[in-house]
Design brief:
The structure is a single chain. The chain has a single domain, classed as Major Prion Protein (Orthogonal Bundle), CATH 1.10.790. It is built from four helices and no strands. Helix 1 packs across helix 2, helix 1 runs parallel beside helix 3 and helix 1 crosses helix 4.
């Protein structure tokens, strides 16, 4: 195998690893976000866990974070939770960083 082939395989492996890590980070963020929103909605125990899973699944509807935001924003509005869109988006960003730290430290 040539040096070029080795380098190509190395880049492919790094890309695959980075994609997997990014997926894990977003899934972790969505679980944390779901737990936070569940608390705001007054859900506990199995209901809170089920809600967090719904948030994770919502991320598969479309590329990006807007599908997750729309899911939780709709749920918050339907339950008359007084919270600003800015605060929700800020919490999403904060939890993304928290999830990144958790996943990369594992």
């Amino acid at each position: 195998m040539s040096t070029f082939d080795n380098r190509e395989k190395s880049y492919e492996a790094k890309y695959a690893h980075d994609q997997e890590t990014n997926f894990k980070i977003h899934a972790r963020r969505n679980r944390l976000l779901g737990a936070w929103v569940a608390e705001l909605l007054g859900l506990e125990g199995a209901e809170a866990e089920a809600y967090a899973k719904q948030v994770i699944v919502a991320d598969f509807e479309a590329p990006g974070d807007e599908d997750v935001f729309q899911k939780i924003w709709t749920d918050l509005q339907e339950n008359n939770i007084d919270i600003s869109e800015h605060r929700v988006r800020k919490r999403m960003a904060d939890l993304l960083e928290e999830a990144r730290q958790q996943v990369t430290s594992e």
